[in-house]
Known about the structure:
InterPro entries: KAP_P-loop. The chain has helices spanning 3-16, 33-41. It is an all-alpha fold. The chain is globular.
Amino acid sequence: MNKEELKDSINYCLNNNPTHQAIMIVGDWGIGKTFFIEKILIP
Length: 43
């Protein structure tokens, strides 16, 4: 899954799911998880 697909999936879950759930992004140290959230998901 590329970054754009991941962004779309997360936004879909957040906007179309009436229940309160958590989303976990898993990856090795330095892979860019925080960068993805700060710069791509929530620009």
